[in-house]
């Protein structure tokens, strides 16, 4: 029964990958494409070793589907890369470096100007508000960076310096979490 569940779940995952083939092929870098094909080959071998030939075949079919999509997208990318390289060269004589390393090394350019924050530290509440403003700006401009989330957490919890008073059995005078709100989280 456990292997039947694994097979059914794996088949569902493979179906989801099939629906994302074109999108991934159009947006993935060459390194990502090669890594995906390598992992799919390993997965097919793994299913073959576990006597799940139908999943191995489905994985091989997915591998072929991705290969075809990569081949179809490759000519489009080279022609658009050529036209992007020719246009600046014709007007300025400058040939841009089209290697993926230079593109990845450049920091993203922000579309909006950097907001000004006035640092107010005359009391705890003003300092907390300043930290929350900076954290909001960091989270908005760099959502992939954990720094803004850490700063927000620090701003919210910085005033807690000790544990709450507790009875001998561990109960605290703090109110319990409302059950109706708990249902929203489950």
Structural class of the secondary structure composition? mainly alpha
Amino- and carboxy-terminal Cα gap: 28 Å
Query: What is the global morphology?
Result: flat
Fraction of residues in H or I helices: 55-70%
Order of helices and strands: HHHHHHHH
* Number of separate structural domains: 2
> How would you characterize the largest beta sheet?
none
Q: Give a count of the beta strands, DSSP E runs of length 2 or more.
A: 0
Helix count?
A: 8
Mean pLDDT across all residues, rounded? 77
The residue ranges in which pLDDT falls below 50 over 5 or more consecutive positions are 79-107
Query: Radius of gyration over alpha carbons?
Result: 27 Å
Which percent range describes the beta-strand content? Answer: under 5%
Organism: Escherichia coli
Protein name: Type VI secretion system protein TssA
Protein described:
Helix 1 runs parallel beside helix 4, helix 3 runs antiparallel to helix 4 and helix 6 packs antiparallel against helix 7. About 16% of the residues have low confidence. The chain is flat, with a radius of gyration of 27 Å. The chain has 2 domains: 91 residues; 54 residues. Helices cover 68% and strands 0% of the residues. It has 8 helices and no strands. It starts with a helix and ends with a helix. It has 186 residues and is mainly alpha-helical.
